[in-house]
Amino acid sequence: MNQLVLVSLLPVVLLIAAGFAAGRLQWIRPTAVKDLSNLIFLLLTPALLFRTMSKVRIEQLDFKPVTAYFVAVAILFGCILLVKGLNRRAAVLALAGTFSNTVMIGIAMVGLMYGPAGLVILLTLVSTHALVLLTIATLVLELAVAREQKLGLGSELGTAPRHPVTTVLLAVKNAVLNPVPLPIIVGLLFAQTGLVIPEVIDRPLELLANAFGPLALVLVGVTLANTSIGGYLRPALALACVKNLLHPLLVFGICHLLGVGGLPMAVMVTASALPIGANVFLFSQRYKVAEELITASVVMSTALAMVSLTLVLLLLGRFA
């Protein structure tokens, strides 16, 4: 098992390290990061997701592992809100503790570790991950904003509170119409027709899809090289431990309770052990709360992931 862990993680570590070195040496300057990120998310990601799901029949998908994942997420999200209270900061921290980087790191890593079969399981989760979590987070944040404004707080937001129904509809729209779930849905719909992508189109899609994993991991390293965690080391480490360690332990336990095992459980637990996703930072910016802490936590969580994922893989090897 130790050798399997090493073989699975070493390519990930080396690619992130290569990106870190490129960032430090200024081969990829901070001003270019946004363009590189757009290339990955707007071109490579849709190509990979559409091509993968265009060969999957609906009856092949198993939503039981995804259910186990979201039960664990609901428990952890709710517990953080209970401890911290119903406010913007608590909602953002709850999102940080439960929202995995399933795309930039998760797809690349699961593809390397578990192959096409594992990738289909992960994409079943990815297809609903952002939709469910970002919709819930938006609703909770908007309710918190409305509550704070009613109490005379949160004036820095400068926006009028929305009606809850408007909030939910807007959150669903924003979660669906983006480069992650949309190509998954379109790919699945295409697969149900029984058609096959023509070779002249499939070959370029394959080349773009193959470029996703290495470039995404290199971008993670570049981002780490250009980000400082400042004076938020301890709280960022605490939040990273919740995300990288507590989250997968909870998913592991729920999977056992619901009878989910084998490859599906391995993929769900691995997904939950991934670092905090970048969308959390966007939410902290949008709602002007805990921005420095979330930035530091994303960096700390990503750096800690190499250790936490190793521990998770060892756990899966021993108890799966």
Q: What fold name stands as the CATH topology? A: Na+/H+ antiporter like fold
Number of strands: 0
Query: How many domains, as an integer?
Result: 1
Mean pLDDT: 83
CATH architecture: Up-down Bundle
Helices, by number, come to 12
Largest sheet: none
Query: Which parts are unreliable, with pLDDT below 50 for 5 consecutive residues or more?
Result: none
How large is the share of residues in beta strands?
Answer: under 5%
Q: How many angstroms separate the termini?
A: 12 Å
Order of helices and strands: HHHHHHHHHHHH
CATH class equals: Mainly Alpha
* Percent helix range: over 70%
Rounded Rg = 19 Å
Which shape, going by the Cα principal axes? Answer: globular
Structural class designation? mainly alpha
Task: Write structural notes for this entry.
With 320 residues, the chain is an all-alpha fold. The protein has one domain (2-315): Na+/H+ antiporter like fold. It has helices at residues 2-24, 30-53, 64-84, 88-96, 102-150, 164-176, 181-192, 199-225, 233-257, 262-272, 279-286, 291-319. Helix 2 (30-53) runs parallel beside helix 7 (181-192), helix 5 crosses helix 10 and helix 11 (279-286) packs antiparallel against helix 12. The longest helix has 49 residues, at 102-150.
